[in-house]
Model the fold of this input.
Amino acid sequence: MSEDSKSSKITSLFLGEYEHLISCENVPVESRKVEKTLEISVEVDAASNLTDALRRLTLPEYLRGENQYRTKEHGLQDAVKSVQYIKYPASLFIHLKRFAYNPRTDALSKVCA
Done:
């Protein structure tokens, strides 16, 4: 079996696709980016179980205040960021994020779940 054949079998089992969408609230600016992935990374700190952690992946994130989205045409803007899975793989590999970054201390800390 060739390396390409092995790679395509792995890809067909584990490759998924998702789309990042950022939509400004006050100006007509939208950013879309489709990415391929071999795993889904979930944060375990605020979720009580895996189902909740997976559900949180697709919740919208509001980019406001110090976390505004920078546009080329309009500068900093309030926006909504979301992720939508386009294609789930046949076999799902889930990476549990066990560390969280704290911007105040500029350090990683272990998540106790």
